[in-house]
Amino acid sequence: MMLAQLVLPLLLTGAAGGGNEIVLILDNSCSMGMESRDDQGRRYPPNDPERAAVLGTLIVEGLARGSADRMGVLAFGDSERDAPRPAQDADAIRALPYSQGTFYKRPLEEAGNRLRSSTLPHRLFLFFTDGAPQDLRDPSEGPRALGVSEGADFETLVIGLFGSEEIRRTGEQFLRPLVRNPQDLVFVQKPREVVAAFTRGYARVLGSRPETGSLSPGESKTFAVGKYVVEVLVATASASPGPAYTAKLEGPQGNAPAQASGDNGCPPGIRYGGAPKLCQPPHRHYQVFRAPNSPDQPSRWTLSLPKGSGDIDYGLILRYDLEASLAVPATARVGEPVRLDARLLFRGNTFDDESFFQADGFAAVATVEGQEVPLRHEGGGRFVADWTPSQLSQDGAPTPVQVTFRNAWMEQGARRTVQVEGFLDFALAPNPASIDLGHWRGERGETRRCVTVDLSRSTNADRVPITCTAQGTITEGVLSCGPVAGSEADLGNGRKGQPLEYEVCFVAEGCCGQMAPEGLGVHFSATHPHYAASAVTVPTVVKVDETGFLRCWWPWLAFAAGMLGFGWLVAGFVRPHDFDPAASVYVAGSEMGLKRASALTLRETPGGTRGFYRNARMCLNAGGDFVRSPRAAVLVLEAGPGGSTRFVTAAGLERKVQRTGKWEPVPAEELAIGYTPNTVYRLGSLYLKWN
């Protein structure tokens, strides 16, 4: 897949906008292919023993071969005074010797000269390295040697392959200043990742988006190619070192011939004493295709691997004959809207295919002043957006405006500059000039009062971005101010300006105290500091009476009362005590009769189960009948906690002493602890026994 992606860059080179000037600095220091030692004698293995960097460079050269692209390779010399070693073709790339050091300056100067003097419309600086420079002391020396700056008209991509974190930290401080954008610096961990890094970088910088994958011997991949594609590019490479392979690309016109093929081995006769196996087979092989395609109708292509000793990685690129175009005025003024007018061109004409715009994740955006602005399709292939400059062009240099069209397969961009100058006349005239939000009583929940402030009488408030902020200290409320949706000014031609209405609101907290804050206001000011003197503060008055204790808390008080009542009700049923379920009583007219009497469970007697706030009780009248009312009873036994009992009414109650067979009155203190099981009791003519 890594190799496949390399194809992307070239795709773009031959795109409708012309070719690309690609200058690649390839690190050929000894640490790439041979073991090295540091000053303390520590040994480090080679960073690229498979010569993956050479393989990636060969694939790019093969794809560019015979196209409008022009690629040059520069390698380090053996000292900081030596000129960089150039390489233009595959044989020269393979033959680049390993250098005795890592010398940045001379190659950077040569790369900058080539890029600035190139007449090709698109230019790319590519740098691959595995170490820190030995000839630079200050990180700022690198960009000065290359000539990269915000105004540079070439793209950058730097790939770092470092054997240790320490070397990476040292190298990064010299590499980061060489890129235009932070994402242009890419780090890889292993040599096998190098080709993929080359590919992904080219795809992003040059505008191609590849489809990648792998094939095993005997497998094939068929892919659909839509309209407007003028060229199909495919790069393949062996996934691991081994013998050569033969891939086949077949399209509507039959088999497409391979444009370039080979391996990344050294030229015959070259050996390195520090790495005797570096130039020995097996090597990694590659094969690239570049075939024309009719843009007027869809087609199908098939990539296959009929024979081979191992898997291959592939990358597919579809080159559209599309070019981005952007029109902007040469000058603009701060705060005055600027219309961005972008389109895609096909064969020099505005491209307008709604089905294309709705497919494959198509998107169009503009990037200006560090912000990304979506473009809207106005029909006829025109994509527009309104941009209001918020600051002057810095240091006299025009402000860059970038537009990008992208989908799953391509990414086309155009860049223009606008000289932002001067400032608009600006004066604020809020209406009303003071705000009275009213007088009301606070409630249990928050309360809100709002007033709308109109800025339509102001000068250029419809063009200059404005902020509205609340001023003053409030302990139990919040004063806010914000634009009213839909109040944007109409600037004509469908353009919308700044909001002309702002809503000022005061929110009082629930259960608030008395409030009549002083010093409140809303402050209207332009976002740009140039207009600071035009800021206006609108005084704001508000008064809120205290909510009051009952008004604030009555729901909670009612809730608490309800919970207490509910608890009292539940306790009335739960708190009283019940008799033990097994407790029973015998009642007879004589002691002998107790032996013949049947036991009656206490819970089965009238009132024998607990009631609302009433313990279970057994009530017995003088005739020996069980009754419900204790008033009609001569003996009342009541249940207690844990199965205990107590006599509530038992005047004259006696018990029989088993030891003597005599009767004795039950002491008053024992009445409180209830009956004793299996003891015979007597009350008048009634005899009782509980179990």
Characterization of the model:
The structure is a single chain. The chain is an alpha+beta fold. It contains 12 helices and 46 strands. The strands form 11 sheets. Strands 5-4-1-6-7-8 form a 6-stranded mixed beta sheet, sandwiched between helices. The chain has a 6-stranded antiparallel beta sheet with strand order 38-37-46-45-43-44. Helix 3 (about 50-65) packs parallel to helix 8 (about 195-205). The model is unreliable at about 1-15 (pLDDT under 50).
Count the beta strands.
46
How far from one another are the termini? Answer: 93 Å
- Report the helical percentage: 10-25%
- Cα-based radius of gyration, to the nearest Å: 47 Å
Looking at the structure, what is the overall shape? elongated
User: What does the average pLDDT come to?
Assistant: 87
What's the story with the biggest beta sheet?
A: 6 strands, mixed
Q: Structural class per helix/strand content?
A: alpha+beta
- Strand order within the widest sheet? 5-4-1-6-7-8
Summarize the structure.
The chain has twelve helices and 46 strands.
List descriptors.
691 residues, six-stranded mixed beta sheet, six-stranded antiparallel beta sheet
Give the topology, please:
Elements: H1 2-13, E1 20-26, H2 30-33, E2 36-37, E3 43-44, H3 52-64, E4 70-75, E5 85-87, H4 90-95, H5 105-117, E6 122-129, H6 141-146, E7 155-161, H7 165-175, E8 185-188, H8 194-206, E9 211-215, E10 220-225, E11 229-238, E12 246-251, E13 254-256, E14 258-263, E15 285-292, E16 299-307, E17 312-320, E18 322-327, E19 331-334, E20 338-346, E21 349-350, H9 354-357, E22 363-368, E23 371-374, E24 376-379, E25 382-387, E26 399-406, E27 411-423, E28 435-441, E29 447-454, E30 466-471, E31 477-483, E32 488-492, E33 495-499, E34 501-508, E35 521-526, E36 536-545, H10 549-574, E37 584-588, H11 593-596, E38 600-601, E39 617-620, E40 626-627, E41 635-639, E42 645-649, E43 654-656, E44 663-665, H12 668-671, E45 680-683, E46 686-690
Parallel strand pairs: 1-4, 1-6, 6-7, 7-8, 19-27, 28-36
Antiparallel strand pairs: 2-3, 4-5, 9-17, 10-16, 11-15, 11-17, 12-13, 12-16, 14-15, 18-20, 20-21, 20-25, 22-23, 22-26, 24-25, 26-27, 29-34, 30-35, 31-34, 32-33, 35-36, 37-38, 37-46, 39-40, 39-41, 41-42, 43-44, 43-45, 45-46
Helix pairs in contact: 1-3, 1-8, 3-8
